Amino acid sequence: MSSSAFTINAVVTTFGGKLYKLTHTSPTLKASIDANVFVPPQAANEKVPVLIYLSGLTCTPQNASEKGFLHAWAAHYGLAIIFPDTSPRGLELPGEHDSWDFGSAAGFYVNATQEPWAGHYKMYDYITEELPELVFTDPEFGSKLDGSRVSLSGHSMGGHGALTLFLKNPGKYKSVSAFAPISNPINAPWGVKAFTGYFGEDNKDLWKQHDATELIGNYSGPTPDILIDVGKGDGFYQQKQLLPENLVEASKGTSYEGKVNLRLHDGYDHSYYFVSSFAKDHIEHAVKYLSGKSVL
Amino acid sequence: MSSSAFTINAVVTTFGGKLYKLTHTSPTLKASIDANVFVPPQAANEKVPVLIYLSGLTCTPQNASEKGFLHAWAAHYGLAIIFPDTSPRGLELPGEHDSWDFGSAAGFYVNATQEPWAGHYKMYDYITEELPELVFTDPEFGSKLDGSRVSLSGHSMGGHGALTLFLKNPGKYKSVSAFAPISNPINAPWGVKAFTGYFGEDNKDLWKQHDATELIGNYSGPTPDILIDVGKGDGFYQQKQLLPENLVEASKGTSYEGKVNLRLHDGYDHSYYFVSSFAKDHIEHAVKYLSGKSVL
User: Fold this and answer.
1) pLDDT tens digits for chain B (296 residues)?
2) Concatenated DSSP letters for B233-292?
3) Candidates A24, A76, A155, A270; catalytic one
């Protein structure tokens, strides 16, 4: 048995499953980073499929684990969840901790090309390659997870991550859904700030390679429905940071036309009170494509 | 329409209902204090019954609201929830903030008789009288709640509060349940510290009046089943802070014999990962006695 890459900080029993709170040193990031992995009770008897849930700005793996309530439904349907962190940790790069929407806890799921970020802020490679490989080969829980059945979801910046990772890797993930995603970052203040910092002001081709609204037109691959929920009371939606309608509009005339299911909900804000309210729908969306099980 | 006693800090849409985040100045406590009130969607059409959920040491109303997940099931069954705070706030009594298990956020749901607490730490009166009266007469949401159908639940110190308030007020509450409750505080370090501070070392009669294990022998009134869940991996259970078996033992030979349903669960700890895992059962327990609805 190989040794684990992870330090296990805690194993928490919840909803009949186990939540592993992990830390490791990432060769990709050349930094420390956390991750949580929820293993549902069904894993005792069969390999279970996996949802990677990408969190939003300012979050650690703890926020969604504690407040998103995704694991309640994952335990019901027999789904594991990987909760990655949102940036490398423990670095002290110049300016890294100055903004809540750039640098630490704001990695945007890209590989930065600009200094001082380029050597460490490679969250795209980390999420698509390093982290799942370490999880699926972990001697403690890896053999219980089916690395061939993986879906994506995420919230806000993590919704951006989920959509772009799905669209950039046709067939790699079985489905994608998003809560209040940053859907067109090159046209939103958060995205412009992040991509300017990580890619430079002039490299607009690279910007477009990490923008779901730009990517969907060139996508070719399987087309599971994309579920997107947004609250109309979400201040960031109102401030046009999210722009989910742009993604729907861009899907027209593509293989995704009519398959981007954008649901706008009266009253709901951007918080975990919103995410948890629709967590069941997103878990069921993933389960539908991961297990073929009817959830009706 | 009377004016509200509360300042509404936020109204959050969640699970189709509304979570009101409130602050007010309490005449009973002569202090500021917070409270959250969850109003389920069913309140649009009918008066709904109410669960008062009492939180544990160190908590504010936000912790259980965000992480307990009780409101998800309350929204399903049509139950309102009042989440009171755990002590007066904004005071600067001598030593008030020195300990995490005494003073602020540790009111223990008693009326203190010792100085400097006696003038302010009257959480028993506040929870049994003042707060529900203010909630049920509030012009914003009070008319949607049925003040004649109220049950209790709580966690740890709040489980102690739920059990003792129920047993001290026969018939006032329709049912009670508790997560990892301090069940016999006069024999547990937390309870001894709190009761010594709030009641004085020598007033053991008063101590016993706020100890569920002491109270159950003298209880006469309706006897709805009492549901208690405790995790065997709970460090405070292992340290004998909770002593739920003492309550079961004390119920023998009383009208509650065989009706205290203590469930011990392998692995679970003292956290909200434990509370949320069994939240559905506790909401269903309350609904059974509040609405007569079958939840099977």
Assistant:
1) 568 999 999 999 999 999 999 999 999 999 999 999 999 999 999 999 999 999 999 999 999 999 999 999 999 999 999 999 999 999 999 999 999 999 999 999 999 999 999 999 999 999 999 999 999 999 999 999 999 999 999 999 999 999 999 999 999 999 999 999 999 999 999 999 999 999 999 999 999 999 999 999 999 999 999 999 999 999 999 999 999 999 999 999 999 999 999 999 999 999 999 999 999 999 999 999 998 665 54
2) T-HHHHTTSS-HHHHHHHHTTSTTTT-EEEEEESS--SSHHHHHHHHHHHHHHHHHHHH-
3) A270
- Asked whether residue B1 is domain-assigned, the answer is no
CA distance A221 to A219: 7
Q: Which residues of B touch A266 (CB under 8 A)?
A: 13
Task: Tell me whether residue B156 is one of the annotated catalytic residues.
Answer: yes
Residue A82 lies in a domain: yes
Query: Is the bond into B185 cis (omega within 30 degrees of 0)?
Result: no
The beta strands (E) that lie in chain B are given as: 7-14, 17-26, 31-39, 48-54, 80-84, 145-154, 176-179, 226-231, 260-265
Distance spanning both ends of chain B, measured CA to CA: 40
Q: How far is CA A270 from CA A44, A265, A273, A281, B2, in A?
A: 35, 11, 8, 17, 33
Rounded Cα distance between B272 and B40, Å, is 21
Q: Is A220 exposed, middle or buried (0-12, 13-18, 19+ CB in 10 A)?
A: exposed
Q: Cβ of B12 and A269 within 8 Å?
A: yes
Which chain A residues have a beta carbon less than 8 Å from that of B19?
Answer: 273
- Name the strands in the sheet holding B80-84, side by side, starting at the edge strand that comes first in the sequence: B7-14, B17-26, B31-39, B80-84, B48-54, B145-154, B176-179, B226-231, B260-265
Give a yes or no: residue B256 inside a domain: yes
CB-based contact A276 B233, cutoff 8 Å = no
A1, part of any domain: no
User: What residue numbers bound the domain in which A196 lies?
Assistant: 7-291
CATH of the domain at B136: 3.40.50.1820
SS3 content of chain B, % helix, strand, coil (to 5): 35, 25, 40
Chain B CA closest to residue A73? B277
Task: Supply the DSSP symbol for A271.
Answer: S
Among candidates B69, B265, B273 on the partner chain, residue whose Cβ is nearest the Cβ of A12: B273
DSSP A143: G
Burial class (CB in 10 A: 0-12, 13-18, 19+), A188: buried
- Asked if this assembly's ipTM is beyond 0.85, the reply is yes
Q: How far apart are CA A83 and CA A68, in angstroms?
A: 11
Cα–Cα distance, B22 to B10 (Å, whole number):
7
Chain A residues with CB-CB distance to B under 8 A? 12-16, 19, 66-67, 69, 72, 231, 233, 265-269, 271-274, 276-277
Per the annotation, the verdict on B234 as an active-site residue is: yes
- DSSP-derived letter for residue A144 is G
Reported as type and span, the H/E element at residue A296 is: none
Residues 6+ apart with CB under 8 A from A37: A19, A20, A22, A80, A81, A82, A83, A135, A141
- Count structural domains, chain B: 1
